[in-house]
Design brief:
Number of strands: 12
CATH superfamily: Aldolase class I
CATH topology: TIM Barrel
Strand order of the largest sheet: 7-8-9-6-5-4-3-2-1-10-11-12
Helix content: 25-40%
Strand content: 15-25%
Structural class: alpha/beta
Radius of gyration: 19 Å
Length: about 350
């Protein structure tokens, strides 16, 4: 690359994020504002969504190409009925080593958590942007307390869906006052809080650079209260920088897509609920896999198409943004559509 930025094309594909629905039952920092994403919003009709069998077939092809981790996301994946049926299908695929689920946990009952674990779900990641009720309600526009999400986390832990990761997107002047309370609440548990820099995902959340709290500032705040130290990554390409409390009270993570982009080590792709494949969270256009399945393409033909898509990608939006290079196309897919 003549501009000195990273070439992603030689990075293997190891991680597939699968969006199960474009629906959600509360809003977060990355969703469209209420004026655009209200009760009268038109969601995808059911026939346009990939069926569980179609998802499992694509997952098998991805596994044959080296994918080892599957993450089910949304929207809110728990809104998809009989989710454990899909997990059972994915659990049977040779080569898949880890199946996880990203959720807001508000719909996670004790029985549902047990059913998901029994079907083959390995881990859970919970989106929680505030531990204080007022902050939580203000950010998510819901009519229930944060205790409902915390109960879902407890159900997941009891079912053996750990270690549970708690994702907090930090916005300056909105919920950054909850950084220490969030860290303090989960200190001493087996849960791992991950503080995420507020990113310009999509086009409708009104993102501004001055709303970003750099991960370095989060580390400094926590370290001043409870001393922490860095920990080596679990694997090459891990997006979160790991830290642990020096007193042994657990671990936390920092995801710094804005101030420390990791395009060069990215090994993940995203499959939308209706079968569009995106090679970057900040992509503007996808590749239609649903049409390939429904017109009768063989697995070999789908595999060939996926290989071509992945080998030709050059996504590096975060690096371009941080380097001050204006992206050619600033249109980006919405988080509510593609998931995290």
């Amino acid at each position: 690359m003549t501009d000195g930025l990273t070439d992603r094309r030689d990075r293997p594909l190891r991680d597939l994020r699968i969006s199960l629905t474009d629906r959600c039952n509360f809003r977060c920092s990355y969703c469209m504002p209420k004026a655009l994403f209200g009760a009268d919003h038109t969601f995808l009709p059911r026939h346009q969504l990939l069926s569980f069998e179609e998802i499992a077939r694509l997952a098998r092809v991805f596994a044959s190409l080296g994918v080892r981790k599957l993450r089910l996301t949304g929207g809110e994946p728990l809104l998809r009925r009989e989710l454990e049926t899909l997990i059972g299908l994915l659990h049977e695929i040779d080569g898949i080593e880890d199946i996880s689920l990203t959720t807001n946990a508000s719909l996670l009952t004790r029985d549902k958590a047990r059913a998901l674990r029994a079907a083959g779900l390995d881990r859970l990641t919970v989106s929680l942007d505030g531990i204080d009720d007022a902050t939580f309600r203000a950010m998510n526009d819901v009519g229930f307390p944060v205790a409902k999400v915390l109960a879902g986390i407890d159900h997941a832990e009891a079912a053996g869906l750990g270690p549970i990761k708690i994702n907090m997107v930090v916005r300056k002047g909105v919920n950054d006052g909850d950084i220490l309370p969030m860290a303090g609440h989960f200190r001493g548990t087996a849960h791992i809080v991950r503080f995420i820099e507020y990113m310009d995902v999509g086009n409708s959340n009104g993102w501004r650079l001055d709303q970003v709290v750099p991960s370095r500032d989060v580390v400094d705040r926590i370290n001043a209260r409870w001393p922490i130290e860095p920990v080596a990554p679990n694997y090459r390409g891990e997006v979160a920088e790991r830290y642990r409390y020096r007193d042994g009270a657990g671990e936390l993570g920092l995801i710094s897509s804005v101030t420390q982009p990791f395009c060069g080590t990215c090994q993940r792709a995203r499959l939308s609920a209706e079968g569009q494949l995106f090679t970057c969270l900040f992509a503007s256009d996808g590749h239609d896999l649903r049409d390939r399945l429904r017109r009768g393409d063989s697995d070999a033909a789908v595999q060939e198409a996926l290989t071509a898509i992945w080998s030709q990608r050059d996504d590096r939006y975060s690096e371009l943004r941080t380097a001050g290079v204006q992206p050619i196309d600033s249109r980006r897919i919405e988080m509510s559509y593609i998931g995290g």
